[in-house]
């Protein structure tokens, strides 16, 4: 055991020296933080778009003349909602990311959002022969272009203000007027720059717009996230961060944009009556990969509830209710799992496998693909809402069973150690206070 502990201590030292500093830098990096926060802001937009895709399915379940007539006359409303939510999610991402990055730099946030939106539209919009706007790349296909544009535009604005290349109004002029004049030079620069970028891309690609060029360049990386091997590695990496006390949100700047794009594409496919293809969304990560908390720790909670150890029984009782809402900090820090070599294997590699299982079942047609990112709701309900599939309840019961079988052998080692400690403490107390005296003290009313 001492050799194992020694090896773990060396491994921990390596992680603390390499992974932890990198994770801390990533978590504090302003551009990545802005992307992470900008993706979170999109949550209500995704919810709205998801609902707009779900409601048109109502006539399939409620087959009445009144319902069919209503949807025949007013069904276009849901298509409009979808186009104004998911159909413009690239633009909304630009606004959100530029807001948070400009806020970090203490710039004029409204101006930053305006500049970024102009730059993005210069690259993403096209017009037909009649002069009508074609908004093809305002949706998830323009998401990554929007990310780059938001970061670049805010940095240009920052450069102009930092080097005083802006028009300054005299004192006494209202701030909103002064800020508006301050935007003139960076707006002109951004306008010219992004028009040139568009012209160069158009000449080199034969008319292909920048968002499509970026999508083609990122296709191998984005498409790779549909691989179950890659998803498993991502889940393992998330749990490695947690195991060493680092919130897995440090990976959000990488995962969140892809998850948003995948959900948007699934919803669009469902609306068009086409097959759904993506399993990785924020909904599946929350409902399945983080079922009852990171590492699917409900099995460990159950093991503690039936434990003979007084300490672990109390921890299990405290952790049970939060686990039903996907919160497992009482388990992570109360057992603890974090930096506990005994629970390292079941938590990281076992937890990732149990979390991946529902996504594998989607691939084999045994569970609906995700079309919804549920809000904060209890377990079972969250899994059902992801794909509106009652089979999710059975799948999550299987996850509970697998989690229990996974954690139980390792918990038994912890339980034995704790029972030995508790028995030792009890024996020491008996030497000092007899059972009769202890009973007498308990009966006294102070």
Automatic annotation (TrEMBL):
It comes from the Bacteria. The keyword Metal-binding does not apply. The keyword Transmembrane helix applies. Its main location: membrane. Residues 15-410 form the PTS EIIC type-3 domain. One of its GO terms (cellular component) is plasma membrane. One of its GO terms (biological process) is N,N'-diacetylchitobiose import. This is Permease IIC component. It comes from Listeria grayi DSM 20601.
């Amino acid at each position: 055991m001492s050799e194992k502990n020694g090896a773990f201590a060396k491994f921990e030292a390596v992680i603390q020296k390499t992974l932890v500093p990198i994770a801390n830098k990533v978590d504090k990096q302003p551009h990545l933080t802005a992307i992470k926060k900008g993706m979170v802001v999109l949550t209500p937009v995704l919810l709205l778009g998801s609902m707009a895709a779900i409601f048109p399915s109502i006539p399939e379940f409620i087959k009445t003349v009144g319902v069919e007539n209503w949807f025949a006359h007013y069904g276009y409303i849901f298509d409009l909602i979808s186009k104004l939510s998911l159909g413009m999610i690239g633009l909304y991402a630009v606004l959100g990311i530029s807001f948070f990055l400009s806020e970090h730099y203490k710039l004029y946030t409204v101006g930053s959002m305006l500049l970024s939106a102009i730059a993005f539209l210069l690259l993403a919009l096209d017009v037909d022969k009649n002069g009508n706007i074609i908004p093809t790349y305002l949706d998830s296909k323009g998401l990554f272009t929007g990310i780059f544009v938001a970061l670049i535009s805010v940095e240009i604005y920052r450069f102009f203000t930092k080097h005083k290349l802006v028009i300054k109004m005299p004192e006494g002029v209202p701030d909103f007027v002064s800020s508006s004049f301050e935007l003139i030079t960076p707006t002109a620069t951004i306008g010219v720059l992004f028009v040139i970028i568009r012209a160069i891309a158009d000449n080199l690609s034969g008319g292909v717009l920048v968002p499509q060029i970026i999508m083609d360049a990122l296709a191998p990386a984005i498409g790779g996230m549909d691989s179950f091997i890659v998803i498993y590695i991502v889940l393992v990496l998330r749990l490695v961060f947690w195991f060493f006390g680092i919130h897995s949100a440090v990976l959000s700047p990488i995962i969140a944009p892809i998850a948003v794009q995948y959900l948007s594409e699934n919803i669009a496919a469902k609306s068009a009556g086409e097959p759904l293809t993506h399993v990785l969304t924020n909904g599946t990560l929350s409902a399945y990969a983080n079922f009852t908390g990171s590492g699917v720790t409900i099995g460990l909670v159950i093991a503690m509830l039936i434990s003979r150890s007084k300490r672990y029984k109390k921890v299990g009782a405290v952790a049970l209710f939060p686990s039903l809402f996907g919160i497992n900090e009482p388990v992570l820090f109360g057992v603890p799992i974090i930096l506990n070599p005994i629970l390292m294997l079941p938590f990281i590699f076992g937890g990732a496998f149990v979390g991946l299982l529902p996504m594998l079942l989607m691939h084999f047609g045994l569970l609906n693909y995700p079309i919804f990112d549920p809000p904060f709701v209890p377990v079972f309900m969250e899994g059902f809402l992801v794909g509106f599939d009652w089979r999710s309840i059975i799948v999550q019961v299987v996850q509970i069973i697998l989690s229990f079988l996974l954690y139980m052998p390792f918990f038994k080692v912890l339980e034995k150690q704790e029972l030995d400690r508790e028995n030792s403490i009890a024996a020491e107390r008996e030497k000092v206070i007899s059972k009769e005296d202890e009973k007498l003290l308990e009966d006294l009313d102070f």
